[in-house]
Amino acid sequence: MAVINIFNPLIPNDIYHGDSRNLLKRIEHNSIALSVWSPPYYVGKEYEKDLSFDDWKSLLIDVIALHFSIIKPGGFLAVNIADILCFKDESMPKIMAENVSRRKIALSKEEILAVKEMHPDWNRYKLAEHFGCSEQTIDRRLNGNNIRGGKYQSQTRIFLVGGLIEGAAKDAGFYLYDRRIWVKDAAWENSRWHTISYRSVDESEYLYIFWKPGITKVDRARLTKEEWVNWGSRGVWDIPSVRSNADHDSKFPVELPRRVIKLFTEPGEIVLDCFMGSGTTALAAIREGRKYIGIDKEKRSVEIAKKAIDSISKYTKEPEQMDLMLRDLEASYGIG
User: Fold this and answer.
1) pLDDT by residue (tens digit) across 190-228?
2) In the chain, which ranges are continuous DSSP H helix?
3) Cα separations (Å) of 225 from 229, 230, 231, 233?
4) Above 70 in pLDDT, residue 282?
5) Residues facing residue 319 across a β-bridge
6) Distance (Å, whole) CA 101 – CA 129
7) Three-state SS at 264
8) Alpha-carbon distance 303 to 308, whole Å?
9) Are the C-beta atoms of 174 and 211 separated by less than 8 Å?
10) How far is residue 123's CA from residue 138's CA, in Å, rounded to a whole number?
11) CB-CB neighbours of 233 under 10 Å
12) Which site in 57, 154, 311, 317 is 20 to 30 Å from 110, CA atoms measured?
C-alpha cells in the first residue's frame, strides 16, 4: 500500500488509501487528462452506511469541485452513475400504492366492512378468524398501512441524480460535453424482467462527461474503424454487467472505462479514479497504455486493486493475451 507523505504529490501508477476529498488536493495541477469514476450510489452498502442523504450529496459536490484544478485544460471528467437513485425514506407516507397483484388472500376492505357491520363488537383478531387470515391482513385492508410483523416498512424514494451532477460540475467550472447510456443487465429484486410496481426495471446507467475549457484534440485514429462505428460515435453502449460478486459488491466491467479512456485520452496520459473500488479503471488504463492514479477509502478495496494490477503487470503486454487475463480477473475477483 502506498505510503503518503502529506507534502508530496501523488505519483502516477499507484493506488492510494484515503478519503478522496483529502487526496485529490495532493494531485499536481493540470496533470489529469481524464478522471472517470463511479461514486457510492447511496443504496445502503457497507462503505456508505455512515452517510446521510445530505452527506452523500455533499460528497459528490466536493469531489467534483476538487477536480477542476487537477484536470488539464481541454481534459474531461466522466461520472458513471444510475440516473434514478432509489433509497428508503422514513419521511414518506407508509403506503404509495395498493399492490393487489401481490396479495396472497383475495379479501377486500368492503368485505371486511360488511361483516363488521353485522358484528360491530368484533376486533381484528375475531375478523381474522372469520376470514381465515392474519390480523395484519385485516389491519392492512382496513387502515391502508403496511405493517408486517408489527413493524412499518419504510417507503422507497426516487431521486434524479443527473441534475445534481451537472449543477455541481457547472459550479466547479466544467461544461457538460456529452452523455452516454450504458445498457447493462436488468436487475430488480434479483429478477431479470419483473418489478413489484409500475416502475421500470433498472437496466441502464449514465456516463456524464464534462469538459474543462481548453484545447481538446479530436483524433478518430485513437479508435479502429470498427470501434468508431460500433461505439465511438454511438450514444448507447450495450455492455454486459460483471458476473462475479466474489469480493467486491460495487463493480462495472473493464470495457466501460476502457472505451472512455481510449476515446478521450492519448497513450501515456494520466487517468484518475477517485473511487477506485477493486481496480477496474487502472486495469483499463494499463490495457490502453495510459498511466493511472487510484484512490479509495476502503483498505480492502485498495488491496484487491493492487492484487489485480500485480497480476496483470506480470502478464504479457500482448493485447489479445491481456484481454484474456482481464476476463479471468473479472471472473475471479469481481472487478469494479
Assistant:
1) 555 555 667 777 788 999 999 999 999 999 999 999 999
2) 20-23, 53-67, 109-118, 124-131, 135-143, 162-172, 225-227, 255-264, 280-287, 299-313, 319-333
3) 6, 9, 10, 11
4) yes
5) none
6) 23
7) helix
8) 9
9) yes
10) 10
11) 11
12) 154
Question: How far, in Å, are 21, 120, 177, 203, 239 from residue 186 at the CA level?
Answer: 33, 49, 27, 4, 12
Secondary structure (3-state) at 210 = strand
Our separate counts of H helices and E strands in the chain read 11, 12
Phi-psi region of 165 (alpha: psi -120 to 50; beta: other; left: phi over 0): alpha
Three-class SS of residue 318? coil
Q: Which residue matches cell numbers 455541481?
A: 168
What is the 8-class DSSP label of residue 101?
G
Give the separation between CA 296 and CA 201, rounded to whole angstroms. 30
Contact 230, 317 (CB under 8 A): no
Number of other residues whose CB lies within 10 A of the CB of residue 254? 24
**Long-range own/partner contacts, residues 287-290 (CB < 8 A, 24 or more apart):** 287/254, 287/258, 287/319, 287/322, 287/323, 287/326, 288/258, 288/261, 288/262, 290/33, 290/261, 290/265
Of 319 and 278, the one with more pLDDT: 278
Q: What is the pLDDT of residues 293-308, one digit of tens each?
A: 999 999 999 999 999 8
Note the pTM of the prediction, 2 decimals.
Answer: 0.76
To which residue does cell 413493524 refer?
Answer: 151
Residue type, 174: F
Please give the Cα distance from 7 to 12 (Å, whole number).
Answer: 16
Q: 125 near 66, Cβ under 8 Å? A: no
C-alpha grid cell, residue 264: 478521450
List pLDDT tens digits, range 163-196. 999 999 999 999 999 999 999 877 654 555 555 6
Is the Cβ–Cβ distance between 152 and 94 less than 8 Å? yes
With 0-12 / 13-18 / 19 or more C-beta atoms within 10 angstroms meaning exposed / middle / buried, residue 314 is exposed
